[in-house]
Design brief:
It is a single chain. It is built from 17 helices and 50 strands. By secondary structure, it is an alpha+beta fold. It has 3 domains: 291 residues, glycosyl hydrolase (family 31) (Immunoglobulin-like); 249 residues, Glycosidases (TIM Barrel), CATH 3.20.20.80; 229 residues, Immunoglobulin-like. Strands 5, 6, 7, 8, 9, 10, 13, 15, 18 and 19 form a 10-stranded antiparallel beta sheet that branches. Strands 41-42-46-49-48-47-50-45-44-43 form a 10-stranded mixed beta sheet. It has a 9-stranded parallel beta sheet with strand order 30-29-28-27-23-22-21-32-31. InterPro entries: Gal_mutarotase_sf_dom, GH, Glyco_hydro_31_C, Glyco_hydro_31_N_dom, Glyco_hydro_31_TIM, Glyco_hydro_b. Its EC number is 3.2.1.20. Pathway: Glycan metabolism; N-glycan metabolism.
C-alpha cells in the first residue's frame, strides 16, 4: 500500500528537500560524538601521557605460529577480560604485498548473543574483499620463518622484504634491505573491542564514560541499537623517516595530508571516511565526503610505500608528524604516525613496500583492479545542469553549441526528466519523445546521460517499486523483515539492496530496452545519492542497524554501498545490447570505495561557485588519482551559486585538465552554457574546450596506461620526481600522464601572472608560444585571462589532433599532429595508443600502439610498433589505414635547421620527400620547424630523416 501524507508531513519533508545554503555541521558527527572514535582517541591520549610505561594488552602466542605456503597463522591473546583469542593471519603475496588480518575467535564461531533479538550476523564482517579485491593473489611459498628471543622474522618478497613480529607486546616491523619502512603498533594503540554481554547497572549506578556508547548511541534524533555492542578495531601505523603522506580520499584538503591533533595550520579532527551527502562542503577540512578509499601513500626522497586498510565501516584516521631532534646523532628525518580506527569488521591491512610510486600503484592495482579503459566520448566535454526542462530545451542547447562552434559529446538529464521522480520513466509532458531526442544527438555522434538513483519511490502503482518489494530486493529495517522506508527526492522511498545477487540481476534487467522504454544505445547513466543519501536518516544517510542481504548490518557495509549500486548499473548497461554486442558503459557515481575505478567515473559532488572550490578541486583529483581512481572531475563552474564570468572562464580552463570534464549547475543557478558568457569569455572558453579535444589522443593514451599499470593520469610532482623534496607538497600543478605536459591552470581571482615550479634543469617550452625555460626552480610566467600556463618538458613527443570537430566521434579518422619537444640532450620520445574507443575489441588485440623516437644525433624521427601480437590488429589497422600524420612540429632545434627545405620520408620499401619550414625563435622563444603532410600512416613503421 502506498504511503499517504498529511499536509503537515508534506510541508515538513519538503523542507528537507531544499538545498542547504552551507554545510550544516550539526548534521554530522565529530570524533567526540562518535563513540568508538572517542574511545580510541582517548586510549591514544592515555598512552601518550603514560609514555614508556604504556603497553598494549596484546601478546602473540609464539607456540601457535605456523608458516605454510606463504601464510603465517597464529593466535594473539588480548590479556584483559580473562583472555580473548584473536586469530592472526599474515599472507605474503608473490608481488611483495603483505596482508595482516586479525579476527575474533568467539565471533567467528558464533559464541555470542545478540541484543534486541537482532537477526544481524554474529561474525565480524569479512566480505569487503569480495567487493574491493580482484584476482587470485598467490602467496610466496618460499617465504621463511625464524624465531629468536620473542621476535619472529619472516623473509619474503622479490626485494629482501622482512616482516619482523615482536610477540609481547604485539607489533610488526616491515623492512626492506634491513631498513624499517612501516611499523604496526609502534605506539601500542592496537585495540580490538571484543564482544561482551551487557551487564545491567544497579539502580542509581552510572555507566563508565566508555560504556555510555557501548550499547546504543543517539545522534540527531536517531538511535542506533548496536545489537553486537562495541566492536571497533584500531591500529597505529608509523612511517619512519617519511614526512609526507597522501591519499585516503575523499576530503577537501591538501594533497599532502595535514596533521590532525591541533597546532598552527593543522586540524583538530581526524580524517573521516564515512560516505555522506554533504551539501556545499567546506574546503580545507578533514570532514567526510561522498566517497572513501582507505589507501595511504608515504613519500620520502627516493622511496614510496603504501598501506591499504580494508574496512567498509566508518573509519577515522589521525595523522601526526614527529619532529626531528636537532641534537640527535642521526640523519633520520621526521616521521609520520597514523592512527586508524574503524567501527566494525576485521582488522585487515595490506602493506606495499615499493620501492617507488610506479611499483606501489601497480601493486595496488593488482589488489583492487586497474581503472577501466573508458569510451572515448566519456573523456571529452559533458554539458549538464539540474535540469534541462524539456526535450526541446535539450535540442536547443545542442543547436547552440554548433552555432557557436563549441565541441561537446554528452548532454545530461537530472531528476526532473522523470515522471514524478520515478526512475526509468520520462515526464509525459516535457519528454514525450525521448527516442527522437536521442536520435537528434546521435547525428553529431553525441550521447545522453540520464540520472538513476538507488532510492525507489514508494508507490504501489510504480512497477519498479512494486516488484522490488514483492521480491524482497529492498534493504530491510533493523528488524530484518520489513523493507526500510526513508525519504529522498521522491518523498517516501525504498532502497534497492545490491548486496543481494538476485537483486543485482533484477536491477541489471531494468536497463534492457524493453524495460527502460524510451532509452536507446545512445543513453548512459548517472548514479547519484548512492552513499546512500536519506534525508531523514542519521547524518543524512541510512541507519547503521538496517539489515542487508546475508543479515549484515548497514554499519558493516556502508562505505561499499555506493559501489555495489554502480557496479550493478555498469553490468546492466554492458549486457543490454546482448552477447557479443557489448559497448563500454559509462557510469558516473558520487559515492565510491576502493575498486570503484573498475566500473565508474566520479565527481567531487556539490561544490560551490567560488574561488576556494576551484582551488580545492585539483588536490582532490590528485588524491583520487594516486588512490587508484583517476577518472575524476569536479563540477565546472561550481554546482551551487552563480560564478562571475572570470571565475567561469578560469574554471573551464582548469576543467580542460580534469580527467572527467563536465559543466554542471544547480536548478536555482542561472543558465551558464558556455555560449551565454558573452565575449571575450565565449572565445576563451571555446579555446579551452578545443584544447581538450586536440589533446584527446594524449589523454586516451594516459587512460590506457592507467588501465594497464595503475599510473595516475594527473601526476603529482613526487610521482615524476621522487628525489625532489621541494615538490612533495605541490598540488596546484601536475603532469598529464607520461606526455611531459606540465599544467598549472589559474585558480585565483584577478591573476595576470603566476609562479610555476620546474623540478629539474631539463628544458621546458611554453606549449603555445614556445618560450624556453632552462633552470630548475620557480619562474614567474604570464597568466592573462586568455592564457593557460602549460609547458612541454624537453624529451617528449605529444600526439594531438588539430581539426576542430563538433564531437570526439567525428574525429575518429582525422589525421594526427606530432609535437616534438627536443630535450637538452637532443632527444625525444612518446607513445600513442588508439582503439575504436567504444567496444571491447581492444581486448582481442584490435588496437594501435606506437612508439615515437627522435634523436638529434642522426636527425631522425621513427615510428615503431609496440603491439606484442600485431597479427591480431590486422583488421583494425585496415580500418584505420587512411589515418595519417599530417604535421610534425619540432620545438627546440638549432639554427642550422634554417637551411633545411625538405626531409626524407621512408615507409616500408618506399621513400619520398616532404617540405619543412623553419621559424627562428625570438625574445626567448625556441626555434621550430614544421613538416607539412609527411603522408605517413599511423598504423605503420616509418622514419623521417631531417639531415
Amino acid at each position: 500500500m502506498s504511503a499517504r501524507l498529511t499536509p503537515i508531513l508534506i510541508l515538513s519533508f519538503l523542507s528537507l528537500l531544499q538545498p542547504a545554503q552551507m554545510v550544516k555541521h550539526e548534521n554530522f558527527k565529530t570524533c567526540s560524538q562518535s563513540g568508538f572514535c572517542k574511545r580510541n582517541r582517548a586510549l591514544a591520549d592515555r598512552a601518550q601521557s603514560a609514555g614508556a610505561s604504556w603497553t598494549a594488552p596484546y601478546e602473540l602466542d609464539g607456540k601457535t605460529l605456523q608458516l605454510k605456503d606463504g601464510v603465517l597463522t597464529g593466535k594473539i591473546w588480548k590479556t584483559e577480560a580473562g583472555g580473548i583469542e584473536l586469530p592472526l593471519e599474515v599472507s605474503l603475496f608473490e608481488n611483495g604485498v603483505a596482508r595482516v588480518t586479525i579476527d575474533e575467535a568467539q565471533r567467528r564461531t558464533g559464541e555470542i548473543t545478540l541484543r534486541h533479538d537482532s537477526k544481524a550476523r554474529k561474525e565480524r564482517y569479512d566480505g569487503a574483499e569480495k567487493w574491493a579485491l580482484v584476482g587470485d593473489h598467490k602467496c610466496q611459498k618460499t617465504a621463511t620463518m625464524e624465531t629468536k628471543e620473542g621476535v619472529t622474522t619472516v623473509a619474503y618478497g622479490p626485494d629482501n622484504y622482512e616482516a619482523r613480529i615482536t610477540h609481547k607486546p604485539f607489533s610488526v616491523q616491515f623492512l626492506k634491505g634491513g631498513e624499517v619502512y612501516i611499523v604496526f603498533n609502534d605506539r601500542n594503540l592496537i585495540n580490538v573491542e571484543h564482544w561482551r554481554p551487557k551487564i545491567e547497572k544497579a539502580e542509581g549506578e552510572e555507566p563508565t564514560e566508555d560504556e555510555e556508547t557501548y550499547w546504543e548511541e543517539t545522534f540527531g534524533g536517531n538511535t542506533d541499537s548496536k545489537p553486537r555492542g562495541p566492536e571497533s578495531v584500531a591500529l597505529d601505523i608509523t612511517f619512519p623517516g617519511y614526512d609526507h603522506v597522501y591519499g585516503i580520499p575523499e576530503h577537501a584538503t591538501s594533497l599532502s595530508l595535514k596533521e590532525t591533533r591541533g597546532g598552527e595550520g593543522n586540524y583538530n579532527e581526524p580524517y573521516r571516511l564515512y560516505n555522506s551527502d554533504v551539501f556545499e562542503y567546506e574546503t580545507d577540512s578533514p570532514m567526510t565526503l561522498y566517497g572513501s578509499i582507505p589507501f595511504m601513500q608515504a613519500q620520502k626522497k627516493g622511496s614510496t610505500v603504501g598501506v591499504f586498510w580494508l574496512s567498509a565501516a566508518e573509519t577515522w584516521v589521525d595523522v601526526i608528524k614527529t619532529k626531528q631532534n636537532p641534537h640527535a646523532l642521526t640523519t633520520e628525518k621526521a616521521s609520520t604516525q597514523t592512527h586508524w580506527i574503524s567501527e566494525s569488521g576485521l582488522l585487515d591491512v595490506f602493506v606495499l613496500l615499493g620501492p617507488d610510486a610506479a611499483w606501489v600503484y601497480r601493486q595496488y592495482g593488482e589488489l583492487t583492479g586497474f581503472t577501466t579503459l573508458p569510451a572515448m566520448f566519456s573523456i571529452a566535454y559533458h554539458q549538464c545542469r539540474w535540469n534541462y526542462v524539456s526535450q526541446d530545451d535539450v535540442k536547443d542547447v545542442d543547436r547552440k553549441f554548433d552555432k557557436f562552434d563549441i565541441p561537446y559529446d554528452v548532454i545530461w538529464l537530472d531528476i526532473e526528466h522523470t515522471d514524478g521522480k520515478r526512475y526509468f520513466t520520462w515526464d509525459p509532458l516535457t519528454f514525450s519523445k525521448p527516442e527522437s531526442m536521442q536520435k537528434t544527438l546521435a547525428r553529431r555522434d553525441r550521447k545522453l546521460v540520464a540520472i538513476v538513483d538507488p532510492h525507489i519511490k514508494n508507490d504501489e502503482n510504480y512497477a519498479v517499486d512494486k516488484e522490488m518489494v514483492a521480491k524482497g530486493f529492498g534493504v530491510k529495517d533493523k528488524g530484518g523483515e520489513k523493507v526500510y522506508e526513508g525519504w529522498c527526492w521522491p518523498g517516501s522511498s525504498h532502497w534497492v539492496d545490491c548486496f543481494n545477487p538476485a537483486a543485482v540481476d533484477w536491477w541489471k534487467s531494468l536497463f534492457k530496452f524493453d524495460k527502460f522504454i524510451g532509452s536507446t544505445p545512445n543513453l548512459w547513466i548517472w548514479n547519484d545519492m548512492n552513499e546512500p543519501s536519506v534525508f531523514n536518516g542519521p547524518e543524512t544517510t541510512m541507519p547503521k542497524d538496517n539489515i542487508h542481504h546475508g543479515n549484515w548490518e548497514h554499519r558493516d557495509v556502508h562505505n561499499i554501498n555506493g559501489m555495489s549500486f554502480h557496479n550493478a548499473t555498469y553490468e546492466g548497461l554492458k549486457i543490454r545490447l546482448g552477447s557479443g554486442k557489448e559497448r563500454r558503459p559509462f557510469v558516473l557515481t558520487r559515492s565510491f570505495f576502493a575498486g570503484s575505478q573498475r566500473s565508474a567515473a566520479m565527481w567531487t559532488g556539490d561544490n560551490q561557485a567560488d574561488w576556494p572550490h576551484l582551488q580545492q578541486a585539483f588536490p582532490m583529483l590528485l588524491a583520487n588519482g594516486i588512490a587508484g581512481f583517476p577518472f575524476a572531475g569536479a563540477d565546472v563552474g561550481g554546482f551551487f551559486g552563480n560564478p562571475s564570468k572570470e571565475l567561469l572562464t578560469r574554471w573551464y580552463q582548469a576543467g580542460a585538465f580534469y580527467p572527467f570534464f563536465r559543466g554542471h549547475a544547480h536548478i536555482d543557478a542561472k543558465r551558464r552554457e558556455p555560449y551565454l558568457a558573452g565575449e571575450p569569455y565565449v572565445s576563451i572558453i571555446r579555446d579551452a574546450i578545443r584544447l581538450r579535444y586536440s589533446l584527446l589522443p594524449a589523454w586516451y593514451t594516459a587512460f590506457h596506461q592507467a588501465s594497464r599499470e595503475g599510473m595516475p593520469i594527473l601526476r603529482p610532482h613526487f610521482v615524476m620526481f621522487p628525489d625532489d623534496e621541494a615538490g612533495f607538497a605541490i598540488d596546484d600543478q601536475f603532469f598529464l600522464g607520461g606526455t611531459g605536459l606540465l599544467a598549472k591552470p589559474i585558480v585565483k581571482e584577478s591573476a595576470t601572472k603566476t609562479t610555476v615550479y620546474f623540478p629539474d634543469d631539463q628544458v621546458y617550452y611554453d606549449y603555445f608560444d614556445h618560450t624556453t625555460y632552462h633552470r630548475k626552480g620557480h619562474h614567474e610566467v604570464s597568466a592573462a585571462l586568455e592564457e593557460i600556463p602549460l609547458f612541454m618538458r624537453g624529451g617528449h613527443i605529444i600526439p594531438r589532433k588539430d581539426r576542430p570537430r563538433r564531437s570526439s566521434g567525428l574525429m575518429k579518422y582525422d589525421p594526427y599532429t606530432l609535437v616534438i619537444a627536443v630535450s637538452s640532450e637532443g632527444t625525444a620520445d612518446g607513445v600513442l595508443y588508439v582503439d575504436d574507443g567504444e567496444t571491447y575489441a581492444h581486448q582481442s588485440g584490435a588496437y594501435i600502439h606506437r612508439a615515437f623516437t627522435f634523436s638529434y644525433g642522426d636527425n631522425t624521427l621513427r615510428s615503431g610498433n609496440l603491439h606484442p601480437e600485431p597479427a591480431k590488429a590486422a583488421a583494425y589497422n585496415k580500418d584505420m589505414r587512411s589515418v595519417r600524420v599530417e604535421r610534425i612540429v619540432i620545438v627546440g632545434i638549432g639554427k642550422e635547421w634554417a637551411a633545411k627545405k625538405v626531409v626524407e620520408v621512408k615507409q616500408g620499401s618506399k621513400t619520398w620527400k616532404a617540405k619543412i619550414v623553419y621559424t627562428e625563435g625570438k625574445d626567448g622563444k625556441a626555434n621550430t620547424a614544421v613538416v607539412r603532410d609527411p603522408k605517413v600512416s599511423i598504423t605503420k613503421d616509418w622514419s623521417v630523416n631531417f639531415t
